[in-house]
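Table S2 (continued). Query chain:
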Amino acid sequence: MFTGRTDMPAETPAAYPPHERTGKTAFKLDKNWLIDPAYAAHKIGMMVKIRGTRGDSTGFPEWDDGNSEGREGKLQGVFDSGSDYMTRTATLLMDDRESLTVPIIYLVPVPPTQVRNKVMALDGRYKGQIVTVRDMMLDSCLVTHDDSMFDDLTHDRMCLYSDR
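Corresponding output:
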């Protein structure tokens, strides 16, 4: 491991829990990511941000005059029309306790902010499960479901989760 170094101890495999790095390739969520069946069991409680409502850079049409741009809310439910011709929407509980219905194409995941955050894994071995952030690095987090296996997920592959 440390070629030419005699002052460093050998790595002890038993001391390092197994983990893998998820994030070696580009990850882009589909515009209808909230209807992915993998997220169905724990969808309620996901924290999302409203983005692209001004119609300026995302390729989506303007919505609500951009008045809700940048606001964050807790997902309360998703209506899937099953059709690309009818708008799929999500109901959010906002910070001011207001309920807001938003087309899901304008919702993006809120990444974790600190160690011990609960997050929904959007990719990797824990996709669709609620996991706990155990360590935060610059561009990724070490997450676990039960402290026996770990996954190294980039921030764009996680969504902050609130069970309150």
